[in-house]
C-alpha cells in the first residue's frame, strides 16, 4: 500500500510538470459579429455617497467647532471646516435624555415631499408612543405604567410660527349608588399630608378626606390611594366591620367587567387578626392593609377598615391598550 501511495504521488507530480511545461495553448476560434449584434454593457453606477450635498443645502450638525472625528461619531459629514447632515436618516442621542432625528429628502426613492402645504402652511408632524407592562388577572387586566402617546404637528407660514393649543376637558362625576340596609357603610379616600418632620405618612393621610364634590379625583399611576371603609352612625362598640372581598371596576356598577381584585379571603380582616393572605398576590404591587386599633384615636376602631392601593388603570382585553375610564372601588 505504501508503494502504491509513492507511485501515485510521483505520477501526480509528473502530470503537473507536463502541464506546466507545455508551450502550446488551446484557443477558441474568433468570430467578429456584425455591427448590429455588438453588445454594449452599461457603465456601473457610482456608489451612493451620503455626503454629496450641495453647499446651499448643507445644514450644520452638532457644534460649530466639531472636529472631523467627532462629526463622524455623530453620523454626520465633514468638509470645508463644516460638520453637516448627509443624505440619510440621522439619529443622535444626547446625554441629557433627548434625541435628534433628521430625515433627508434624498433618503428614499422617490424622494420625500418636504414641501407639503395645507392652506398656505407647511406642515410637519410625527407620532411617539411608550411601552408599558400589563398585569393579567382572571377577570381583567391592568397596568401601572404610564402610557404616553404624542402626535405633534408644526405648521409654518412665510412670516410666523403657529403653536397648537390642547385643551383637556374634565370628566363628569361618577353616578352615586345607594342601597337600603340595616347598617350604612361608606367608603372614602384620605387626602391628608405630612406637614412636619417625623410624621407618619399613613397616619397623616387618614386625618382628612375628600368631599363628594372633589370627585372624580386624578391620581398618577403607582401613587398611593388611601382607602377607608367604616360603619356610619353606629355607637355599638361590639360591632366589628369585616370585609370579605374588595375589588376595582371601570364603572360605578360593582358587577361590571373588567374587575381587579384588591383584597381577597376577607375573613382574616377582622381587627383582631390582620393576615398576609388579604392582598391579591397576583398583583405585583400588593394592597397594604393598615391596622386600626386604639392608637388610631377613633372612638370605635372596630367600625373601620383601612388599606392602601397603588393607582392603576384598566387595559383592553384584546389589544392591551390602556383605557381612559375611571376606576372605582367596591367592597363586600
From TrEMBL:
Pfam families registered for this protein in UniProt: Trefoil (PF00088), Zona_pellucida (PF00100)
Alphabetized UniProt keyword annotations: Cell membrane, Cleavage on pair of basic residues, Disulfide bond, Extracellular matrix, Fertilization, Membrane, Secreted, Signal, Transmembrane, Transmembrane helix
Domain (ZP): residue spans on this chain: 50-332
Membrane topology: Single-pass type I membrane protein
P-type domain sequence ranges: 49-87
Main location: membrane
SUPFAM superfamilies given in the database record: Trefoil (SSF57492)
InterPro entries, per the entry: P_trefoil_dom (IPR000519), P_trefoil_dom_sf (IPR044913), Zona_Pellucida_Domain_gp (IPR051148), ZP-C (IPR055355), ZP-C_dom (IPR042235), ZP_dom (IPR001507)
Any single biological process term in GO: binding of sperm to zona pellucida
Disulfide bond entries: 51-77, 61-76
Localization annotation: Cell membrane; Zona pellucida
Stretch forming the signal peptide: 1-22
Record GO terms (molecular function): acrosin binding; structural constituent of egg coat
One GO CC term, this protein: egg coat
Main function: Component of the zona pellucida, an extracellular matrix surrounding oocytes which mediates sperm binding, induction of the acrosome reaction and prevents post-fertilization polyspermy. The zona pellucida is composed of 3 to 4 glycoproteins, ZP1, ZP2, ZP3, and ZP4. ZP4 may act as a sperm receptor.
PANTHER family assigned to the protein according to its UniProt record, in alphabetical order: ZONA PELLUCIDA SPERM-BINDING PROTEIN, ZONA PELLUCIDA SPERM-BINDING PROTEIN 4
Name of this protein: Zona pellucida sperm-binding protein 4
Species, as recorded: Liparis tanakae (Tanaka's snailfish)
Amino acid at each position: 500500500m505504501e508503494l502504491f501511495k509513492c507511485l501515485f504521488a510521483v505520477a501526480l507530480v509528473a502530470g503537473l510538470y507536463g502541464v506546466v511545461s507545455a508551450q502550446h495553448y488551446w484557443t477558441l476560434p474568433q468570430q467578429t459579429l456584425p455591427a448590429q449584434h455588438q453588445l454594449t454593457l452599461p457603465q456601473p453606477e457610482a456608489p451612493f455617497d451620503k455626503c454629496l450635498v450641495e453647499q446651499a443645502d448643507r445644514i450644520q450638525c452638532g457644534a460649530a467647532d466639531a472636529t472631523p472625528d467627532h462629526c463622524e461619531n455623530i453620523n454626520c459629514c465633514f468638509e470645508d471646516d463644516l460638520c453637516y447632515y448627509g443624505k440619510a436618516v440621522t439619529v443622535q442621542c444626547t446625554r441629557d435624555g433627548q434625541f435628534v432625528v433628521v430625515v433627508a429628502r434624498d433618503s428614499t426613492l422617490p424622494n420625500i415631499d418636504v414641501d407639503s402645504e395645507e392652506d398656505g402652511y407647511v406642515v410637519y408632524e410625527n407620532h411617539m408612543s411608550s411601552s408599558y407592562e400589563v398585569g393579567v388577572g382572571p377577570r381583567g387586566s391592568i397596568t401601572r405604567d404610564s402610557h404616553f402617546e404624542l402626535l405633534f404637528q408644526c405648521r409654518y407660514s412665510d412670516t410666523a410660527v403657529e403653536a397648537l393649543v390642547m385643551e383637556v376637558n374634565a370628566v363628569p362625576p361618577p353616578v352615586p349608588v345607594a342601597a337600603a340596609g340595616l347598617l350604612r357603610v361608606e367608603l372614602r379616600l384620605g387626602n391628608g399630608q405630612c406637614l412636619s418632620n417625623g410624621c407618619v405618612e399613613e397616619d397623616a393621610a387618614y386625618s382628612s378626606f375628600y368631599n363628594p364634590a372633589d370627585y372624580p379625583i386624578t391620581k398618577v399611576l403607582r401613587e398611593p390611594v388611601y382607602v377607608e371603609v367604616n360603619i356610619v352612625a353606629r355607637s355599638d362598640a361590639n360591632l366589628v366591620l369585616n370585609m370579605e372581598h374588595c375589588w376595582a371596576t371601570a364603572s360605578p356598577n360593582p358587577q361590571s367587567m373588567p374587575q381587579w381584585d384588591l383584597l381577597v379571603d376577607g375573613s382574616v380582616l377582622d381587627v383582631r387578626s390582620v393576615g398576609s393572605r388579604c392582598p391579591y398576590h397576583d398583583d405585583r404591587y400588593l394592597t397594604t392593609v393598615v391596622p386600626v386599633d386604639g392608637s388610631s384615636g377613633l372612638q370605635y376602631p372596630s367600625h373601620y377598615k383601612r388599606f392602601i392601593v397603588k393607582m392603576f388603570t384598566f387595559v383592553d382585553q384584546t389589544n392591551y391598550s390602556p383605557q381612559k375610564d375611571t376606576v372605582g372601588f367596591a367592597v363586600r
